[in-house]
Amino acid sequence: MTSHDIRIFGDPVLTSRADEITAFDDSLKHLVEDMLDTMDAAGGVGLAANQIGVLRRVFVFDCTTEEDGMRGHIINPQWEPVGEETQLGPEGCLSIPEVLADTERYQTVRVTGYDYDGNPLTITASGLMARCIQHETDHLDGVLFLRRLTPERRKEAMAYIRQADWFNK
């Protein structure tokens, strides 16, 4: 398969909403495999299609831990919180290198969607996997995690970004 370049903060594709997927074919399977390779090469735990310039509603993930975890993909994800409990923890993004900020997310979520063969799936997840589902679905909606930060944390992150070598190229 192929590893793609990851789009970086400032690229308009990152703030564009991805289109629903209606064709479950070999090109979709190939896209998912390329996205997994790209995520692995970059050392990430999740990657949305628009991060490689493709405006289609699919993300891949690898949230394996020593205790448990999952690796896979979700087409046309829709999530909802399970309960009101939230988690506050460090979050980063492959499209915003070197920026890590405490971000509040729901502790547990339920996501529905499809696999690349068009089979429906439902996952209930907590912790890192729940964070990943929320983060990657935000990407597909054109929302970067910076928008989920408190004003103070967003200001700090933006100050760092403005000084970063990768941003000033």
From TrEMBL:
Query: Organism's domain of life?
Result: Bacteria
One Gene Ontology term of the biological-process aspect is:
translation
InterPro entries hit by this protein: Peptide_deformylase, Peptide_deformylase_sf
The EC number(s) attached to this protein equal 3.5.1.88
**Enzyme class, first EC level, given as a word:** hydrolase
Keyword Glycoprotein found? no
Coiled-coil parts of chain: none
> Where, by residue number, is the active site?
E136
Q: Name one GO molecular function term.
A: peptide deformylase activity
Swiss-Prot/TrEMBL keywords: Hydrolase, Iron, Metal-binding, Protein biosynthesis
Pfam families reported for this sequence: Pep_deformylase (PF01327)
Cofactor binding: number and manner: Binds 1 Fe(2+) ion.
The reaction(s) this protein catalyses: N-terminal N-formyl-L-methionyl-[peptide] + H2O = N-terminal L-methionyl-[peptide] + formate
Enumerate the residues binding Fe cation. C93, H135, H139
Q: Which cofactor does it need?
A: Fe(2+)
**What functional role does this protein have?**
Removes the formyl group from the N-terminal Met of newly synthesized proteins. Requires at least a dipeptide for an efficient rate of reaction. N-terminal L-methionine is a prerequisite for activity but the enzyme has broad specificity at other positions.
Q: Identify the NCBIfam families for this entry.
A: pept_deformyl, PRK00150.1-3
Sequence similarity: Belongs to the polypeptide deformylase family.
Protein name, please?
Peptide deformylase
At the highest ranks, the source species' classification is: Bacteria, Bacillati, Actinomycetota, Actinomycetes, Mycobacteriales
